[in-house]
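ok so I'm stuck.
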Amino acid sequence: MQNFRSSLIRTVCLATLGAGITGAFPASAQANIPGAQHLELTTSWDKVFPKSTKVNHRKITFHNRYGITLAADLYEPKHATGKLPAIAVSGPFGAVKEQSSGLYAQIMAERGYLTIAFDPSFTGESGGTPRDVASPDLNTEDFSAAVDYLSVQDNVDPEKIGIIGICGWGGFAINAAAMDTRIKATVASTMYDMSRVTANGYFDQNTVTDRMNARKALNAQRTADYRSGTYQKAGGVIDPLPEDAPQFVKDYYDYYKTKRGYHQRSLNSNAGWNKTSALAFMTSPILHYSDEILSAVLVIHGEKAHSRYFGEDAFKKLQGTNKELVIIPGASHTDLYDQVDIIPFEKIDSFFKQYLK
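replied:
not stuck anymore, here's the structure
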């Protein structure tokens, strides 16, 4: 059983972890940004969900404050005029914009928002080397970088910007809201606290000894990586699926490893993160200042989600009357990835309409 638990840690959201493309700034401005790079983005529709006829779609790029260029899909309502409220979306942790975040972004664009779904630094079509690296700071920063981009668009009202984080990115979304006062409303859907689960394991079962043993193994891996000049991968969703796998692991498999959600650039669908990414999460907790968030926050979780306690505990720390927790009856963790009849888009829409005004 211990070996199986260890194998779960490999899975990113389970435990730890072209031509015609335009960016946020003209080429002259991009050239002055340290590390900014030109990205070759696919121009074909390669999402795991169908393209909507109600919105316009195009690829864009923007950069974060570390100079890393990020790739995103921009969705806007057809025939929209004037300055629109805007939403940046990312997640789940180890997914790409062609999966859940793109679905959320497209549906919210159908409801009147200008939205972007982006790949985090070092993943998907976004820039940054080495590939497949995560950290609490970078993953929080990427949300603020998306706000940077949205804030300077002619068709966006900079006073009406919100964010949506899914799974592990739900935690980063709340963390970003604690840092970035430009974010007026935040939705955390089926959230994980990646720092907590990496350091403590599920339901906080890890001991101090467990953490020290993990640190020793991960630091030994750093030495091995440096010696070899490569980065050992942690592995994506477990494949083949063990017969005795818990139901939530089967749920992940059903999303990431089947036609329903598989994508060739998704870390969870393939080899996963660099193993040593886990180190930063073990000693850099997110959500520490979430009790100081003044803007509105909506936390959504499934009644039957194994991860429900992350959302409930995060909500308990939030202060003020503009915070809300919604539990979806009968829903599992991954139901809120793509089941449009279960994801409460009406509630998400009304929440943003209330607070992006």
